[in-house]
């Protein structure tokens, strides 16, 4: 089986929906099967990466703690939309992991090179 | 005297904006779930501040929902606009607020 490149695009804020948790599960599972995974965070998706999240159990699991483990799954291509960060007055030091911030036009260029794209 | 419960992010929908434009004197507004991101959205903050000043509208946010969403609210001072007028409340106080208002609307 040849490896495919998969792009997972996160566009929703954490806790209001379970999209974030599910996309992360998919990323880990896909990487476990030896595929190349790239993650993209755009629009309210950038809020998923904010540091020091402390949900109570009723709000769901604090899956932001899993982001630092992505590198152990060889998921190192993590891109964040620069315009989305700016609109939300976030800077890179507000985020819990190291990411690559790029203007949306460049993110699109990266996405176009991938075999599959999924949006959460 | 209505309590408006807002729960959507101002970055992805204009529900908050629409409701704010229809609020009347002595109404209350509580920001829960993704609506707590209103504190990072300058136009909404300004609209809330105007309502608070001009129509005596009380503004609240749910403490647990702010804390869940991380440092942006819990650890970083929001210096883009005055936010002191928005009171952080517990779930218990939220229940009290629903009893203190004549009607409650979830938007």
UniProtKB/TrEMBL annotation, chain B:
GO cellular component: a single term: sulfurtransferase complex
Q: Which GO BP terms sit in this record?
A: tRNA wobble position uridine thiolation
One Pfam family per UniProt: DsrH
Q: Which domain of life is it from?
A: Bacteria
Q: What is the name of the protein in this document?
A: tRNA 2-thiouridine synthesizing protein B
Q: Which organism is it from?
A: Paraglaciecola polaris LMG 21857
């Amino acid at each position: 089986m040849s490896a495919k490149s998969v792009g997972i695009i996160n566009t929703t804020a954490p806790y209001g929906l379970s999209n974030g948790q599910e996309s992360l599960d998919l990323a880990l599972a896909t990487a476990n099967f030896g595929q190349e995974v790239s993650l993209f965070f755009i629009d309210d998706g950038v809020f998923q990466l904010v540091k020091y999240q402390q949900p109570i159990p009723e709000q769901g699991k604090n899956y932001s703690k899993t982001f630092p483990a992505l590198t152990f799954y060889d998921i190192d291509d993590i891109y964040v939309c620069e315009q989305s960060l700016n609109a939300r007055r976030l800077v890179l030091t507000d985020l819990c992991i190291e990411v690559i911030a790029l203007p949306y036009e460049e993110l699109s260029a990266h996405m176009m090179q991938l075999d599959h794209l999924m949006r959460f | 005297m209505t309590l408006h419960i807002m729960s959507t992010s101002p970055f992805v929908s204009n529900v908050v904006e629409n409701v704010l434009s229809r609020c009347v004197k002595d109404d209350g507004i509580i920001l829960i779930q993704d609506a707590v991101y209103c504190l990072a959205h300058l136009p909404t903050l300004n609209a809330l501040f105007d309502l608070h000043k001009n129509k005596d509208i009380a503004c609240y946010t749910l403490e647990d929902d702010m804390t869940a969403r991380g440092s942006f609210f819990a650890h970083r001072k929001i210096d883009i606009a005055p936010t002191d007028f928005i009171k952080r409340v517990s779930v218990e106080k939220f229940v009290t607020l629903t009893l203190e208002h004549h009607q409650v609307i979830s938007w």
